[in-house]
Design goal:
Radius of gyration: 12 Å
Strand content: 15-25%
Number of strands: 3
Distance between the termini: 6 Å
Structural class: alpha+beta
Largest sheet: 3 strands, antiparallel
Number of helices: 4
């Protein structure tokens, strides 16, 4: 899987039947798999819960350092 910046936001390209998964969809899926709420994940990266909500909705995107931290917390590869 790799992260690609597009005009519409971030997309995760992976082995999902040759399709791209929106960053927000991938984040939501990983967060739920980890059994975390948006608030818990936001606290783990020291941000407000609406930041996670905005990322999952595609309203905004985290910076590269935050993406790395999210990957550590959610135990997912950053590539």
């Amino acid at each position: 899987m790799r992260l690609r910046k597009t005009q519409g936001g971030l997309l995760w390209w992976g082995l999902l039947g040759g399709t791209a998964m929106n960053f927000g969809e991938k984040l939501r899926q990983a967060r739920k798999a980890a059994g975390m709420t948006q608030k818990e994940l936001a606290q783990a990266v020291e941000l407000k819960h609406n930041a996670v909500s905005n990322w999952e909705k595609g309203i905004s995107s985290p910076d590269p350092d935050t993406i790395r931290r999210l990957c550590e917390i959610l135990r997912m590869p950053p590539n």
